[in-house]
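Expect sequence, tokenised fold; for instance:
***
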Amino acid sequence: MKTKKFTLIYLFFTILAVGTMFMSFSSNPPDGRTGAPGEGACTNCHNPSNPLGLDGEFSVTGFPTDITPGETYTISVVVRNNNGMAQRNGFQAVILDSNNNNIGDISTTGGNPTTETASNGREYVEHRPAIDFANNEVNWTFNWAAPAEGVSGEEVTLYVASVVGSGSNGNSNDLTIEENFTGTISNAVGTDDLEAVAKVDIFPNPAKDFFTLQLEGPINEKVNVRLMSATGQLVYAQVDLSLDSTTEIPVADLPSGIYFLQLNSETASTVRKVVVE
């Protein structure tokens, strides 16, 4: 009798622990489940057999095939459950370079989805929590800032994994889907080197409160100036600056670190590294 009682207690707590884990994953998924190189997949935790016959597909908009360094893109992952049998949806995504390292910076404007940087240095955007389908559809939107100083021709891949959840029997009746999308970093403007036609001086560098950008070139030529953080965030911009001018750029309110100053004309461009102390 005592053995039977202990068995029932053990079974109860086992079920409770498993149920808690499933609820935890729907609120905050484990990192590294996008199917990207070196990672696991949603099927590490979810039954891959899809016993209820759920259907699901997703489309991605906003991720470019031609990536401009320093540009910020708004990306939407739209998940659909056309047969209406699913209850809720969760997802996770990561963006990697050709060496399978994190590239650029992901940000969100609301509380769900959100971002998390794992111990492997990869930045994930993911559900927190999973949400119910509305009209058989769920839309996840986030922003990605391309690196300010990209290598032309570098391939960048967006890996996306999604769970179409039945809402019943833990994770045994769900459908998991994965897909990836690839873009290539290109030049923002003309391929010519701006410094072939103009003299570019930056001082002091490193800078504390401000640095001076001094340009000497054709008077009728104009450039757009952008200062980007190492993660691709725009921190300063000025348009139609004369190629024969001197400009002070404030940096006193910026965190210490490495920044990239982009100078783009209609036909040429250059990037300079600036250190803020």
